[in-house]
Write a structure and sequence with these properties.
- The model has no long low-confidence stretch (mean pLDDT about 85).
- α3 crosses α8 (about 220-240) and α6 (about 175-185) runs antiparallel to α8 (about 220-240).
- The chain is built from 8 helices and 2 strands; from the N terminus they run ααααββαααα.
- The protein has one domain (about 1-240).
- The chain is elongated and about 95 Å long.
- The protein has about 240 residues and is mainly alpha-helical.
- A two-stranded antiparallel ribbon has the order 1-2.
- Keywords: Membrane, Transmembrane, Transmembrane helix.
């Protein structure tokens, strides 16, 4: 019973496109051999085309079987080996970012629009020390809160460090996953927060929302980061298929 469950899990991890082409060709080949070949060809050349078509279907079915039993097992083994670790780190990034959004504003969700993000950041004073991050105890034993810039820098570093764990793991990673992780690492939100945090002067006005330029807002980069994390969640759900318990 366990072997059947493992076989089902193995087959389920194969992309549906391969199954659709392989199984579809097999069914069409059976239909042709059992029924369609019994129908006389109306024209002589159609009999030759029929033989060629049958050969093509047979070739597709053979390739499908070869892929499943000769090529895919090694791919499956590599993905299965890395899936548990990589999925746990991706989950760490996703859950961590959801907490990140919630700390910025209770009104921000994974479905929030750019307008929602701008409205939330408009309420934030970057240098005010009321961010949801405790730095240390002051001399009079009072809790010392970080500024919002410090909070953003800290939260950004958590994401980047998690991505580094995955990229440095040397485990099997899909090209799509590597691409999205690189996109997240290179998100402008990280670089702009790092730049603002490194300045020794306090800039006037809101750093995140500029009322004079509606097209280009710093907080829009946070929205783009949110969308990238949403894409990462889709990739994680595909990766979880390889975690067989």
């Amino acid at each position: 019973m366990r072997h059947l469950r493992l076989l089902f899990s193995f087959i389920k991890t194969i992309d549906l496109t391969y199954h659709a082409i392989g199984v579809g060709s097999l069914l069409l080949l059976f239909a042709k051999v059992i029924w369609f070949n019994e129908i006389p060809a109306p024209l002589p050349f159609m009999a030759k085309i029929s033989a060629v078509f049958e050969g093509v279907l047979g070739s597709i079915v053979a390739s499908y079987i070869f892929y499943i039993f000769c090529i895919y097992p090694s791919i499956f083994k590599d993905k299965k080996t890395s899936a548990l670790f990589v999925s746990s780190i991706l989950n760490e990034i996703i859950i961590g970012f959801q907490s990140y959004m919630n700390d910025v504003s209770k009104d921000i969700t994974t479905e929030s629009s750019i307008r929602d993000i701008r409205a939330a950041f408009l309420k934030i004073s970057p240098y005010q020390r009321n961010a949801p991050l405790i730095l240390n105890l002051s001399e009079n034993k009072q809790l010392s809160h970080a500024s919002w810039l410090q909070f953003f820098q800290y939260s950004n570093n958590l994401i980047l460090n998690s991505i580094k764990k995955v990229m440095d793991s040397r485990l099997f990673l899909d090209a799509e996953l590597i691409h999205i992780l690189n996109q997240i690492s290179n998100c402008k939100w990280f670089s702009i927060i790092q730049l603002y945090s490194s300045l020794n002067i306090h800039l006037n006005g809101s750093l995140f929302v500029n009322s004079q330029d509606n097209e280009n807002q710093v907080c829009d980069d946070f929205y783009h980061l949110k969308e990238l994390i949403n894409n990462l969640e889709i990739i994680k759900s595909n990766l979880d298929r390889f975690i067989i318990k």
